[in-house]
Backbone:
């Protein structure tokens, strides 16, 4: 959720304004982290509406485009590093494309406006983003069964990790090790806090403080890309997700070992649980963090809240009936149906509802636990937990696929 501006080079120049506009739209969608299957579908519909023909191949760090007009055929490779998810900009891009297709906006002016949308500063400043990190970590601690001590400490470490992220984004030689540094900080802080404060679970604090950095969402997107035939993009994203998870686990293990040098008598203890109804308060509060972290419009808060409730309730009911993994798949199916109905009714991007709901379902925390078991020498438990993570991710993908079969998603950007 933290990173610098996308400084990749602009698309190559072309004499056809329609082609130039398509490349600008493609670069914008790519910079917002649009999955390959959504990207290619949206671009196909866009070029068709402009009287062009085209084929696209999306990669996590670039996309290839072959665009054909009445007189010429051009092939482009556009380097476009994926940036942070920005739902407000995604809505702006969609509205701008509608104006172009309807003929209300000249293509030349639209291309300039696309660049302006991409370049405009984030709606929520650094202070709110830091607060969003802290809030999401605190609510995650509650979902993981922690008490008020774990919630406060996880929020504190989450804020420190957010500040670390902003600092490393200005230090290019450190930006690539942000995940490692964040894991080390979380592992060290969790042990020290639990050592100093009785009845505090160190692992819960650590896991909750890095919950936003866990690549569960990327893993789910990667498997969904593979399931939709985007093998290259899905495989690359899958490797990136696994590498991120391993760096986090290594950093946490390093931080815990360093902390134990100062807290030799440390022993893992259990937290004091809160009343069950407090989990529902956490469910109502966590969309506030998603609103900021996904840079969504304030008016879309209601949809983020509905998505979170639908995913959470459906997954809980499904877990009671079918078990936790299949229950998560049922939650994903319910979320997918709700997101598709939302997109068809409001004509807004489905991601507004899909992203917050999936964050409550994704298997990143399970994968992290699996690697933690491996670092502690519990190989059998670690392998079982890692397999459970993959099975859970597949269940989410299948649930979303079934949702698309039940309610066809709106086609377009």
Residues:
């Amino acid at each position: 959720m933290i990173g610098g501006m996308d400084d990749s080079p602009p698309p190559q120049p072309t004499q056809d304004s329609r082609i130039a506009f398509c490349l600008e739209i493609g670069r914008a969608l790519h910079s917002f982290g649009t999955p390959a299957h959504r990207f290619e579908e949206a671009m196909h519909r866009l070029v068709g509406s402009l009287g062009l023909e085209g084929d696209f191949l999306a990669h996590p760090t670039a996309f290839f485009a072959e665009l054909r007009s009445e007189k010429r055929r051009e092939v482009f490779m556009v380097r476009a590093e994926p940036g942070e998810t920005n739902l407000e900009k995604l809505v702006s891009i969609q509205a701008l494309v509608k104006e172009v297709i309807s003929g209300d906006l000249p293509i030349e002016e639209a291309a300039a406006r696309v660049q302006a949308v991409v370049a405009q500063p984030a709606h929520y400043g650094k202070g709110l983003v830091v607060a969003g990190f802290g809030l999401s970590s605190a609510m995650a601690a509650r979902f993981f069964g922690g008490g008020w001590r774990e919630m406060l400490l996880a929020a504190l470490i989450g804020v420190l990790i957010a500040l670390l992220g902003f600092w490393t984004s200005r230090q290019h030689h450190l930006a690539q090790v942000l995940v490692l540094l964040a894991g080390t900080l979380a592992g060290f802080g969790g042990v020290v806090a639990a050592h100093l404060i009785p009845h505090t679970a160190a692992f819960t604090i650590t896991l909750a403080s890095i919950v936003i950095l866990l690549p569960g969402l990327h893993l789910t997107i990667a498997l969904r890309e593979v399931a939709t035939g985007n093998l290259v993009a899905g495989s690359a994203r899958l490797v990136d997700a696994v590498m991120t998870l391993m760096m986090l686990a290594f950093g946490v293990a390093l931080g815990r070992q360093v902390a134990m040098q100062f807290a030799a008598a440390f022993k893992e203890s259990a937290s004091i649980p809160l009343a069950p109804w407090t989990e529902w308060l956490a469910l109502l509060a966590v969309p506030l963090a998603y609103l900021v972290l996904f840079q969504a419009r304030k008016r879309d808060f209601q949809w983020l809240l509905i998505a979170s409730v639908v995913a959470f309730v459906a997954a809980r009911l499904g877990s009671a009936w079918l078990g936790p993994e299949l229950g998560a798949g049922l939650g994903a199916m319910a979320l997918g149906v709700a997101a598709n109905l939302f997109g068809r009714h409001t004509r807004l991007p489905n991601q507004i509802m899909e992203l917050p709901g999936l964050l409550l379902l994704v298997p990143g925390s399970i994968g992290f636990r699996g690697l933690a078991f491996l670092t502690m020498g519990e190989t059998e438990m670690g392998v079982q937990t890692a397999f459970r993570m993959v099975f859970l991710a597949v269940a989410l993908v299948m649930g979303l696929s079934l949702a698309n079969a039940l309610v066809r998603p709106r086609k377009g950007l």
